[in-house]
Amino acid sequence: MAAEPATTIVIDARGMKLSARLREFWRYRELLLFLAWRDIRVRYRQTFIGAAWALVEPFVGMVVFTLLFSRVAKFSSGDIPYPLYCYAALLVWNFFARAVRESTICFTANAALLRKTYFPRLILPAACVLSLVVDFCCALALFVALSAYYGARPELSVLTVPLWLALAGSAALGSGLILGAINLRYRDIGQTLPFIVQTWLLASPVAYPRSAIPASWLPVYELNPMVGIVEGMRWALLPQMPLDPRLTALGAVGALALLAAGVLSFSRAERGLADVV
Amino acid sequence: MPSAAWRTWFSTVSRESVIRIEGLSKRYRLGTGTPGLHRAIRRLLRPGPRPQQNVIWALRDIDLEVRRGEVLGIIGPNGSGKSTLLKILARITEPTTGRVLMRGRIASLLEVGTGFHPDLTGRDNIYLNGSLLGLSFREIRERFASIVEFAGTELFLDTPVKHYSSGMYVRLAFAVAAHLEPDILVVDEVLAVGDVAFQRKCLGRMQAVADSGRTVLFVSHNLAAINHFCTRAVLLREGQIVDQGEPARIVGRYLAETFACQRQRSYPRDPAKPMQIRRISLHGLPDAPGGVLYRTRPFEVRVVYQVNAPISGSIVSLLLEKPDGGTVCQTRDIDSDPECRRRYEPGLYQATVRFPGNLLNAGTYALRAAIESTLLGRDAFDHQPGLTFELLDPEGATLLHTRGRQRPGVLFLNLPWMVEMLDDGEPAPQVQDTSACVGPP
After folding, report:
1. Is residue A15 situated within a structural domain?
2. Alpha-carbon torsion (A122, A127, A132, A137), positive or negative
3. Nearest CA in chain A to B124
4. Contact A27 B183 (CB under 8 A)
5. Do B95 and A186 make contact, defined as CB atoms within 8 angstroms?
6. How many residue pairs from chains A and B have C-beta atoms closer than 8 A?
7. Over the stretch A126-164, which tens digit does the pLDDT of each residue have?
8. Residue B411 gets which letter from DSSP?
9. What is the pLDDT of residues B424-434, one digit of tens each?
């Protein structure tokens, strides 16, 4: 005989409470790991250089930015060599940008899965973000090599790297959920996504130091949570960097607020998801 | 978490009920769901009553209760809401109104390739599928060997499934779903893709699931399978439950309503033909309600044909075929009367042929009538598309079948078997001259 089933499932036209949603998310945590692992496998399958692609994007970005902003525009990065200064920011920026992109389109990209199986839909973008952590680690290895080359020795603050990564991941997941929720009904987002990400890059202190921003712009500029997160990552990875606690707080609050807004707006868009993807 | 009102509702649901559906409806909007910019602007410029959107109710006020261990068959014509109902139960889409309570883990097999990722290998996909169904890796690992054995795809385990045939997909998908020991197994018309042997294996497996006290929901157009396998059937039409109960009765009603027009077929008069078929019709003996034909009872075929000009040397024949292409038999009017090849005078004629009961197996058959001429050469000069009909097993006849599978074969003969004991298990006496047994006395 079948054992007394442990779970009781209720399907109600009025939808599910947020707390029930989150509990269910936890129950499916193994699926989260598996989907993340699947994303990694699929991303580099049938590519020639495989996971080395994770290094190409930040490295090329660093070279371009060094030529453009250090040589042509003559931004100063203080005592730290500009390539290193730039790469530390690009590390977290690339993670963030790809996470936003992939979590926005993951619903339309996995339409077949969504139309045919049930699982907490939040798992899908979360797995996207999680899978990019592996790419981040690859790119981080290159940073270690670069630091050694330039003779920069990291300080104890390097232990806080996971914290900044988690904040960047939250901000990316939140933005991806908001954009993804809109993208379900209006595919216009797919068109504007590169533009959004590019503008966001220019609005974050990745290629230039924050000191280059005029003081009168700062109240608006610092509302971008990526300002605090990018600066935080630099503080963690580079020697003799200052940490601005106010900026860190703004970054952390902003990232968590984005995540909350994303989860809420996605919960509303989730109904009927299988009917629109 | 369920509110207090919910808890009260729970308590009213009997312990034995595994699925309880109340007032379930699903509405779809037709056309593009997203109003474009131009329409939004037009709406701003010209305010007024919005045009009524086209909506379709795929399901309407469904109430249904399924008890533990039941095998529920859902039948109905295309577009009657069968798949929508299963999709809601599988939680892929949400209902517009109403609620469902389900006790236990549900595994669903809705379409080919469900939950498979084409770039991953068969092995990886088993894990993916399992975790989609809510299993832990440890639980999947424990069942891995039996899944692979059931699917019979050992050789392809490390091949990306995009190189699989659709049959292999389904085998693997069914194997995973059936071995996860769900409390509720929901199967849509996927088995049709597999070969006959595999379909049979699946039905057997589903029966085993049901026997162990779990519940199976099964949508199929294979009415014979519904008839043999289900303990109860539900007939859906236009999103509503029309009838439910004993599978044989429900299947019979569905067939009667659907194929009522298929009990006979008429052909328009064509004076250019010297001799032509005007109508062919089927009649059960005795006539069952709704014109349903049973395997165990005889039925009659009546062919009405018209002779437009005096003609001789023509033969009227009937061809019985299986829809998959095999011919069961041909019968001709000259079989019983060689003199039948007489000269026909103009007029309307009717030929009646009786097929005995307990001869053909249950299943779908196609019947065609033809007129051939021995004088005009071998070319048939009236060859018309015919009727498709279903022979059903009578109620209670399922005992004659091995559980969950229809007996194979075109014929179903009740042949006498004589069984005698040859050896009582004692040590055999010394060997005798066996030639005495076979030789003439």
Report:
1. no
2. positive
3. A38
4. no
5. no
6. 123
7. 999 999 999 999 999 999 999 999 888 888 888 999 999
8. B
9. 877 665 655 54
Alpha helix segments (H runs only) across B118-262:
122-132, 137-151, 166-179, 196-211, 223-229, 247-259
The CA distance from A173 to the nearest CA of chain B, in Å, is 21
Task: For residue B264, give the CATH number of its domain.
Answer: 2.70.50.60
Domain identity same for B247 and B293: no
* B128: nearest CB among A1, A34, A115: A34
Contact B114 A116 (CB under 8 A): yes
Which are the contacts of A26, defined by CB distance < 8 A and separation ≥ 6? Answer: none
Angle at CA B186, nearest 5°, toward B9 and B18? 25
10-residue mean pLDDT series, chain B (441 residues)? 53 72 86 65 67 77 90 88 88 88 82 69 83 80 86 78 79 79 80 69 80 86 78 91 87 71 80 86 80 85 90 86 80 80 83 92 85 64 77 60 61 89 74 48 39
The separation between CA B165 and the C-alpha centre of its own chain, rounded to angstroms, equals 23
- Domain contains B415: no
Number of Cβ within 10 Å of residue B72's Cβ equals 23
Q: Give the C-alpha separation, B126 to B147, whole Å.
A: 8
Give this complex's ipTM. Answer: 0.74
pLDDT score, position A38: 84
List, in order, residues 6 or more apart from B405 with CB less than 8 Å away. Answer: B200, B203, B204, B228
pLDDT at B380: 52
Please, which residues 115-154 of chain A have a Cβ atom closer than 8 Å to chain B?
115-119
Residue B304 bridge partners (DSSP): B279, B350
Q: Who among A1, A11, A116 is closest to B111 (CB)? A: A116
Q: Are strands B17-29 and B55-67 parallel, antiparallel or unpaired?
A: antiparallel
The answer to the question of residue A161 being in a domain is yes
Helix (H, G, I), strand (E, B) or coil at B186: strand
